[in-house]
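As the next step, I wrote out a protein sequence along with its fold in token form, included below for the reader:
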Amino acid sequence: MRVPVVHRVPVVHQQARRRRARYARLLWNGAEILVTLGVVLMLLVVHQLWWTNRQAREGAERKVQALQREWEGEGDGGGEGDSAGGGSVSDRGSTSPGDGDGDSDGDHAGGGSRSAPDSASATNPGPRPRWTQAYAILTIPRLDLRVPVAEGISKANVLNKGYVGHYPGTAQPGRDGNFALAGHRNTHGEPFRYINRLRRGDRIEVETRTAVYTYVVDRTLSQTSARDGGVIREIPRSTVRPSYGYSDPGYYLTLTTCTPEYTSKYRLVVWGKLGSMRPR
């Protein structure tokens, strides 16, 4: 006689089922949160690296065109960027390099005679520009760069608009001393992103209402402290790396920006000397 086989049916405990369901919901909710955070971060990166650049570049290009039309239409008359006063003191910035990589040529201090082209010394610099107002155009042929220069280094009112900012208290274009500028290296138009590619002998033009000044790149300081105010002094010389800079008066141009890229820990500095001037 056959003995019947009894098949045991596994018993699933309701409590264990509910526990697994809770774990599944937690995992699902956690995955949704992570995906949402990822999308938000991606949008922030796109905004910073693409949208701010697009907006700032378009605005800077419009300002360059507006300055050119203004100068062509008014000749030697006064304009928006050549009037005294205006703006708040808080927009004037500091005397340390602002948004200030390149390979240093290792040159030591020296050079920079105060002699300048005769025509440059005869040029009338005009009234002091108003704070945050664009009053000149910086052109760097090697970098295919053409960007407005505004007074002051305020991030909100100058640098984040894609402009290059003039350090208050430093010389104006074509004048004896140090015409010092700051610009973003990344985001907001990033006009100074590739100034590490500049080499000795490259031309840099600064166009104002009355004249075009041509500076010639002379030296590069690949990295210095963000507080190295010596690089923008009248006779520029690094206080952090004193072997970089000059010891004689002259007609200097200084470009500063952040380094390494996507950080603001250090500053990159490029120096040039005035080579020539031509009236507009």
About this structure: The domain at 58-279 is CATH 2.40.260.10 (Sortase; Chain: A;).
